[in-house]
Amino acid sequence: MIELEYVLFLSAVLFSLGLFGVLARRNAVMILLAIELMLNAVNINLVAFTVYLSPDLLVGIIFAIFIITVAAAELALALAIVLRLYRTRSSVNVDEVNLMRW
Amino acid sequence: MNVDFALFIPEFVMAGMALVVLTVDLFLPQDRKHWLPYIALVGILGTMGSVFTIAGKSEELYGGLFLVDNFAVFFKVFLLAVGAFMVLASAEYVKKNLTRPGEFYGILLFSILAMMTMTAAGELLTAYISLELFSFSLYILASYAIHRPKSVEAGLKYILVGAFSSAILLYGLSLIYGSLGTTTFSGIADALAGNDDIPVAFLAGLVLVVVGFGFKITAVPFHMWAPDVYEGAPTPVTAYLAVASKAVSFALLLRLFAMAFGPAMDEWRPIIAGLAAATIVLGNLVAMAQHNIKRMLAYSSIGQAGYLLMGIAALSPLASNGLLFHIVGYSAANFAAFACIIAYENLTGKEEISDYAGLSRRQPFMALVLSGALFSLAGLPVFAGFATKFYLFAAVGNEGLLWLVIVAVAGSLVSLYYYLMVIKQIYLGEPEEDEPLRLSVSTVGLLGALGAAVVIFGVYPGPLINLIEKATAVLPMPV
Amino acid sequence: MLTAIVFLPAVGAILMALLARSDRQVRFLSLLITLSVLVLALVVWATIDLDDPNPQWVQRYQWISAFDVQYFLGVDGLSAPLLGLTGLLGVAAVLISWGIKHRTREFFFWLLILQTGITGVFVSLDLLLFFMFWEVELIPMFLLISIWGSGRREYSAMKFLLYTMLSSALMLAGMLVLYFSAGTFDMIALRDAPPSIALITAPGVFFLLLAAFAVKLPVWPFHTWLPDAHTDAPTAASVMLAGVMLKMGAYGIFRICISLFPEVARDYSDLLVTLAVVSVLYGAVMVFRQHDLKRLIAYSSISHMGFVLLGIASLGQVGMTGAAMQMFAHGTITAMLFMVAGLVYEKAHTRHIPDLGGLASRMPLLTIAFMIAGLAALGLPSMSGFVAEILIFLGSFGVYREATILAMFGLVLSAGYILWTAQRVFFGPEKPRFAAIGDVTLVEAAPLAGMIAAIMVVGIYPSFVTDFFDAGLAPIVDLLGAAGG
Question: What is the pLDDT of residue A100?
């Protein structure tokens, strides 16, 4: 079986990639994808902890399932707002979203 | 497991009423839409009544997942009151500026439901789900004026930052779960107290949780989204963001830090204290440079978040009393200020500070309430702000964080300056028009009630403090 | 009873703002309110038992129990006359503002709120309550100066506000240190059982508190807000400011600084005397450089408040009674001078002294009023100023001989400037541009007459007031004796 450390490392790398994506990307959709990456890192963490540390308690897995559901809802909501923005401005670049200062 | 569903009555009532509002909206003809706020109000007041059926009880459901105690009851009543004021304050604005009022009120009720469960959460997952339900409602409400680009922009910024901070928060939570093997608050505390040295993974998780919450409560340096969202969102939503969102986030934070992280207090106290100081300093300094009144209040509420963080940093029975007291006092004052701003915007459509010139001559009552609210935010005696700040600061000083108190007092002095700039406009400025502004009866009632609350909490806080003491008594405190 | 005295103006102000239908009603209601406050205050004053050193008419309730903050009111011999003075000046301020046309309702509203704040300071026996009332007067005064003032009114109002805010922040800091050391805000308890100061030294706290009171008094070098604020304030605000608000500073020194820290007061009395003498002389010399009638009176106030500090610093029964007496006397005299100055400005439309002159023939009554107040200010026997000053000098001469002689020189100067001013403003050749102006009306004369009565009665029969101050200060003197022995 693969050691817990490797799984956690994978999750940390995914999380960092997501973090980088959020900070570096300027396209709103890409930022949302990067956030998904971060959430999936969390899911890997939770599942791994459950499987390796307390396999008979399913708390982590339940947590992960909820996160997947919530993330789907969040994405749907965010895309709706992005779509609305695109209709008014024909762009989804967050640098151009500057009616107000960031 | 035997679950007493009677303890869920308030939540059931609220969820039911939210659905009722959405359903009624489908069948109401366009010219009857103004009934909706009253239905929502009935729902809120009904829920408030049902909260009293669980008052005084102290129970844990589902093994500590969902708590029914005085703390939760206190916040439920308080947040429902905020919700009721929110409905009253937004009725006119919604009618004038927003389409589809049914969903506005429906989502508002859902957000109140989320706040109610958030105050009762005794476990990380419950807390997270409630937090997300609440945030989702706010994302929608913030971008509700879909034909105003500023509002859509506010919504986008809010959801991007919100989702990002949730992800960070979750990663932190997963590390905490991984290092301690439990997600219930009391379980975490037990695990921490049992360990001689605290696991590094837990500390990493703790820092990430603080960062994640830092975004939600607009702690510096995670605050940069707040001014834009506050400015862009429809004004009643801004008020809701500044008051309800802050209050409930701090309720959750207080419960989390007291019930779960208490034994690790030495590790996080310097972090929280540092955040508090930075938030107070930056929030108050930048507020001075603002021209838009919503934006000014956004920065001022960042500063207020700093004061509230002090209560978490000190974390003692007195400090948590002070925290709750300040939440109530701040909410009353800030909502009073926003109620004035909403009413003024309804009448004139303006929201720059310079637009308030000569308000005292056009609408003396509103001028008085707004000035009182601003003075209360600054912490001048007679108003709630003085009593609450005094209580909070003294409690924090008691815990030996004197330097933080000095920063906070200095911040309050600075804040008086920018509030005075508004008050100066109100009383000394020359109005562009002389025509008196007429307020509707309900607005006068709302302003009067909030203004009275600001003064009553300031001069006669005894009964409120008694309630608060009962509420915080259920929280375990580190010795 | 005290609660009624304190809050009647505020409650009345709110009712008046809501109910009064015309400016005329506003005026009469304000007059009614202030008159009833005056009557109540006089009743309290008259019923004080001088043999009882404890505060009387006490009202005390727990207010914020977690920090032992109380709603604790009471009067003793020291505060009762000041209470009466506040009541008297409240009535005078309303009468002198009879002619206010601009935003009348708001004006009287804020004036009454101001009175609540000032009265509250004199009767609070809890430090935090004291601080609250201390702050309450800020906002009304700020608005009174900045809306109804003249000249650079916004600048002056802001300067007043900033000085007071900063100094009161120091006061709050001092009070909090006291609280953290003693666990109570109760002034009486603190006086009876002085705490050992843990966080910083006792002199540190003493000076934090003293700084706040010194700004209010004002003592050189913290005085610069005063001439601006006085000059630009409307007459009623000047009356309240000079008449009673400056006394809040002196009262605070008596009630808090010296009562709670008698040893420190003894150790640093040299410093207090020095500041006092500098204030006396500085104020008196600056008067000669002024061309604005109100500014001139403002500087004379600084000089006279220097006498108060001198009396306090003598730390003996006689000198301190003199200082308290001077507070009372100066309250009536300067209030009256400001009223006269206000009336002169109202009628002649200028306060620039070189432009004035020869008013005596046009307004004889006003001239007489000015002369009476002026003579009282320079300490003519049979007037209240004389009693006060003689007591101060008697008290301080034995302790600080040289300083007292220097301060007496300030009195000589004041005789000079009062007479010189009277000569420049009221006497001399009649100027043609003032040919049309008339004398004071009945409403305007009434408060002046009241003030004259107060000045003369106290001057001829001083024990009317001094007995009270004697009794009120006796416990403080005992403390000082214990500290010195």
Answer: 57
